[in-house]
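Here is a typical sample entry:
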Amino acid sequence: MRKFLEKINSVEKFSGELSYDEPMSKHTSFKVGGSADVWVRPDKDIFPDYSARLLSSAREEGIPVFVLGGGANIVVSERGIRGIVLDTGSWNGFEVKEKPDEKDGDVFTVKVLSGTSVDCLTDQLAAKGLSGLEFLAGMPGSVGGAVWMNARCYEKSVSDALIETEILNENREAHNATQFPAHNATKFPALKIAFRAEDFSYKKSPFQGRDALILSARFSLRSGEPEKIMKVMAEHRRDREEKGHYRFPSAGSAFKNNRDFGVPTGKIIDELGLRGLRVGGAQVAPWHGNIVINTGNASGNDIKDLMGEVSRRVKEARGFDLESEVLFVGEWNL
């Protein structure tokens, strides 16, 4: 791995952070997980070019690369992650442009880089009087992760405001290619993927089945009064706090809701008396059935085993197949 990185860094001048045997517990909201062989966070100025070179070369060498956003919805195995973790954290920021040829002058487009924190973004948009993403206030994670997951809460989804996603074209295909606007020197083309409603559904996006790095997303937002927008955001953050999202390390909701169940997943788990159920240091939150927490010394296996036990009991009692909202990443025991 060192030789591989030395080779890449000799071609693309590297600046940023790079670490071998990096504990992934430092980079996830659950605070669990073993080490990644390599963790790299390229500086913003080199991110598109360096990432393209890294992904292309890693594919040729058969080296796996895991793209890390905010680490808010993943559990990493205690055995860690083989290969390279590409951290998008430095690839952040946004720009606002009024929609061209838009009759409604209150509509704006906002282009956001994928490593941007969604929580920080909502504060900055509110300060500019831009409304449409305030439902994400208080949510951990990155914009790239939110688009990939089609994050949803308070009856709204990211896809409700999304108009375009830009992904790195690591295959260097020529068709539909454009240079990334902020980086004219980019050697690798990027692809702009226009939003299509049929490609998105409840916490599903077309990128979940595609081997591509999300570079940015464009959203359609409306102008509003900053104080009113901030008030709504404060209500969402207060609601998350009251639900105990921040009391212990967690990923928020552990399982997806399914309308076919008739009631929220958390209510089903509550009705079966599974609040407080523990496996090692992992526990179903005593105050909410759909939150799994790290009480302080949980392992990735504890969390995985606990969620598996909850799923088994729900299936046995109600016949429902719960779908995990949490992604289990890394090298797991078979």
